[in-house]
Amino acid sequence: MSFIFGGVRGREDPELAAGNRRTRLHFARDVNDERALADDRPPAQRNRGWAWLAVATVVLAVLALVGTRGAGDVPLAADCDTPAIAVASSVVAPGAVLRYRLTGADGVDYVATLDGAPVQGDAGSTVSYIPTAAGPALQLRQCLSPTLAIAAPAGDGPHELAMLRVAADGSTEQVAAVIVTVDGVR
């Protein structure tokens, strides 16, 4: 197993060393390498620690990617019959990111509100909002929204995150709600 860890240092075959020296000098004469011809010492052995560093870096990068995959997803099962809303945490710090997810029927406009005011959760480019009288509405794909993110309110105490269904005539009906507590001591 010593070949894995660099072999045995300090022991060297004198015939092999002489042969390597002759070959090195022969190549130096062929390419007119005056520096190699003037300095007859054998080249310094390089430490192979960089290889271990590269392996460790790759392992850490893979672990970082695997560890963050899906970490931001709020667990919520798709339910096309019963609208629901779920949050990543029911207690958040003021101004912190509040992650939530919606489920309900496809093809229906839904508006999310925080304490009665419409909010537009950010999910990158995966969600498109439709302007309605009730606020920005989104339609669910396969009965489930992606994880949406908004800033938690600044005031301490309980806050209601609600899901409103927007009818064709523009009227709204609250179909789901969850209480989120903002705690500044966190």
TrEMBL record:
Keywords: Membrane, Transmembrane, Transmembrane helix. The chain crosses the membrane at residues 49-66. This is Uncharacterized protein. The lineage of its organism: Bacteria, Bacillati, Actinomycetota, Actinomycetes, Geodermatophilales.
